[in-house]
Design a protein that fits this description.
This is Cobalt-precorrin 5A hydrolase. With 127 residues, the protein is an alpha/beta fold. It contains 5 helices and 5 strands.
Length: 127
């Protein structure tokens, strides 16, 4: 199954508007997103957006995020998550082995959220 995964990273307390803005920037001109993904501990905060968009949400384990190399490097993400971009790492990890980044992380105008898109061919692992 081909998956287009939007990975999101965001600050604690990021409003839904920031998540939507980052998502809109990342998906512009690209294939339709089939899944959302983020770090497992952030999944409850992303669930309202997943419900609003009617998309399955894939929580990604912290160790998987840390093992994933990313195209962009955020000092804050490196410090808190052990990866250069939570958005990119979540998208790539959730899209499965051999996934390719379609869109580097895009940052919401308020800088509260980021979103990146990856395409892969994986079994669904959503919860």
């Amino acid at each position: 199954m081909t998956m287009i995964v939007a990975g999101l990273g965001f600050r604690a307390g990021a409003p839904l508007s920031a998540l939507r803005a980052a998502f809109a920037l990342a998906q512009e001109g690209l294939p339709a997103v089939t899944h959302l993904a983020t770090a497992a501990d952030k999944a409850p905060a992303l669930a309202p957006l997943a419900r609003a968009l009617g998309l399955p949400l894939i929580p990604v384990a912290a160790d998987a995020v840390q093992r994933c190399g990313t195209a962009t490097q955020s000092a804050a993400s490196l410090r808190t998550r052990g990866t250069g971009s939570l958005a990119e790492a979540a998208a790539l990890t959730a899209a499965g082995p051999g996934a390719q980044l379609l869109c580097h992380r895009q940052i919401s105008p308020d800088r509260m959220a980021t979103c990146a898109l990856a395409q892969g061919h994986a079994q669904e692992t959503e919860q």
